[in-house]
Amino acid sequence: RQANIPLEHGDKHSKSTGRNDRLKTYPQLFDKAFPYFREPVENGCFSLDARRQFRHDSSQLRVFSPPADWKRCLFDLRSGYGDMIKRDETKKEYLDDLLRWIMCNKHKFMSRQKLETTSDSKTLKHGTEQADIPNVFDSLNTDFICWRGLLTRLLCIPYENREDLLVAVVRFRGTYFMCEFDTERKKQEVQERTPKQEEMCAWGFKFEQYVTADKSSGARDTKLRVNTNTAFCSVARSRLGSHSIVFGAEVDCQDGNSKRGNVYVELKTSRVIESQRQYENFCKFKLIKWWAQSFLIGIPRIVCGFRDDNGVVQTLQNYPVHEIPAMVKACVRQPWKPSVCFNFLEAFLQFVKANITTDDERCVYLFRWQPGSDVICQRQGDDPEFYFLPDWFTSWDAW
Ligand code: A3P
Ligand code: MG
Ligand code: MG
């Protein structure tokens, strides 16, 4: 393993990393065959409770429980808004909960060879006794660790024309940890939100309450206070080209009818579509994000509640994720292409590897992008603003 290799360009803050420090993002550059993407496999899960505390269980997983009539719903998303308990969004969470999950699941990151030599060829399954597992290891045997949300954003970049992106990356023990940060533009947008816009941001959570039920009792309770601290997260492992990735994803609910194991449903709300023009925009700008988000973790369907301007959901619609690209192709003149999205993501991951030459938890690299420009890489060093790997993780006694 390489450690602390000095860079040609010195080690002061914000230095460009050299010749390969720009990545173009035009769709035309990535318009080739779909790259190898291994079907994501769920590797574990965790929950965040009403106080946003990590729990290594599926206690917050809910079950999809739609009404019988999908054409006449009348779900008032404004109901109970005043009592809603909102997560403190000023508190940055970085990768902390994902790192907590990793620390609970050390054995899932051991190389097979090491496991076999140390544990007497015992098969290691979920719930294996910690005593069977070797105490020390030197790497996670994974190239990238991040949240699914970042991968979704990256997939959409070749077609994105509004939102910019800022990603901090640290290479530690051979693994690239990637964490999204709010850009100045995003911070300003959040600050300038009107109370009405604030309220609209919460509608999606109220919708979840109308169409999901408690796992054990099977009961729906739309009178309960909505608490946006709670979450259920699935952790998946996959591979894109030569890059192995472990990523966490907040998942809305489980499909109660599915015969297969854990099959999830993604829930969305959107304004009712009243014209061809609105439908085209929906296909062009919204469905790309919905598709990317669900496809990444192998979620087979999305259920959307179409609401009016007063926040009343009137109809529900089912969108099989694998049918979305064809739907878009049928109505948009220059449709987005899944292959472009994935080829770009692969190129981005390659770009990260090519630019980060040090293996040092204190050295942060920033990848910045804004619409119309290239992705730019800067070595940021140990700038406290972007330093996101906590000590309790880097000084974990398993290393
Ligand atoms: P909608 O997408 O139905 O509006 P997700 O759909 O990804 O599970 O997110 C659940 C809800 O969180 C969203 O529901 C929305 O209410 C809120 N949300 C997600 N991303 C957001 C963002 N970037 N800004 C504001 N609210 C957001
Ligand atoms: Mg969600
Ligand atoms: Mg959702």
Automatic annotation (TrEMBL):
Source organism (scientific name) = Candidula unifasciata
Look at the named UniProt entry and state the broad enzyme category this protein falls under.
hydrolase
Protein's GO biological process: NAD-cap decapping; nuclear-transcribed mRNA catabolic process
Kindly give the InterPro entries that the UniProt entry links to this protein: RAI1, RAI1-like_fam
Function comment: Decapping enzyme for NAD-capped RNAs: specifically hydrolyzes the nicotinamide adenine dinucleotide (NAD) cap from a subset of RNAs by removing the entire NAD moiety from the 5'-end of an NAD-capped RNA.
Instruction: Please list the residue ranges annotated as the RAI1-like domain.
Output: 39-393
Needs which cofactor?
A: a divalent metal cation
Q: What is this protein called?
A: Decapping nuclease
Family assignment from sequence similarity: Belongs to the DXO/Dom3Z family.
Keywords for the protein's UniProt record, in alphabetical order = Hydrolase, Metal-binding, Nuclease, Nucleotide-binding, Nucleus, RNA-binding
Gene Ontology cellular component annotations, sorted alphabetically: cytosol; nucleus
User: Does the UniProt entry include the keyword RNA-binding?
Assistant: yes
Q: Where is the composition biased (Basic and acidic residues)?
A: 8-22
Q: Which PANTHER family match?
A: DECAPPING AND EXORIBONUCLEASE PROTEIN, DOM-3 RELATED
Q: What is its EC number?
A: 3.6.1.-
* Gene Ontology MF: a single term: nucleotide binding
